[in-house]
Amino acid sequence: MITGKMSCKTITEDLFRSSLLRFILTEPTTNLYQAKMMKAILLISVVTLQLASGWPTGAPSKACEAMLPKHGSNRPQPANSSPYSFVQSAESYRPGDQVIVYVQAPTGTPFKGMMIQAYDPRTNNTIGDFLEGVGLKKIPECSSISHSDNRDKKSATLVWGAPQDSGNVRFRGTIVQQFNTFYHGLSATVQKA
């Protein structure tokens, strides 16, 4: 029986151990059509499990460019309709400073995941470095940070370390409310002092 949080690999291994899967893969059959259909159903089931799992342990580095979850054909909701906001601890920073960015749900609507990125608005290059924290996962390839679990959250506190040689910084992000509801294009700006 499949219960709790399990990876696609674990589910597949459990299925393989089950008598149904052994039957599908190893039972000789005289009906070629029936055998092909059973194998096709198994393949579709495993692929569907992988697609439905999303990224419960955080966004992968390949999400850096688009900053969008791969949640099937679901489209992002407009940022201006988001129940979430970013609030930063400072209006300006100096090289080497740390800026705290709060991801908040003022309406109390919980979210499952997020990906926040720091970038220079003049060049669009990612800058600085987020510090890992409880429930957070760094994506150093693109100065980003993501959730590390898919539990409901009402806020997140992110700490960003400013580099020595950058100008203004803008934080942009995507917040996942549910698998099929996510908001893309949220932002906050901090000026270099």
From TrEMBL:
<feature type="domain" description="Reelin">
    <location>
        <begin position="49"/>
        <end position="193"/>
    </location>
</feature>
<dbReference type="GO" id="GO:0016020">
    <property type="term" value="C:membrane"/>
</dbReference>
<dbReference type="InterPro" id="IPR051237">
    <property type="entry name" value="Ferric-chelate_Red/DefProt"/>
</dbReference>
<dbReference type="Pfam" id="PF02014">
    <property type="entry name" value="Reeler"/>
</dbReference>
<feature type="region of interest" description="Disordered">
    <location>
        <begin position="66"/>
        <end position="85"/>
    </location>
</feature>
<feature type="compositionally biased region" description="Polar residues">
    <location>
        <begin position="74"/>
        <end position="85"/>
    </location>
</feature>
<dbReference type="InterPro" id="IPR042307">
    <property type="entry name" value="Reeler_sf"/>
</dbReference>
<dbReference type="InterPro" id="IPR002861">
    <property type="entry name" value="Reeler_dom"/>
</dbReference>
<protein>
    <submittedName>
        <fullName>Reelin domain-containing protein</fullName>
    </submittedName>
</protein>
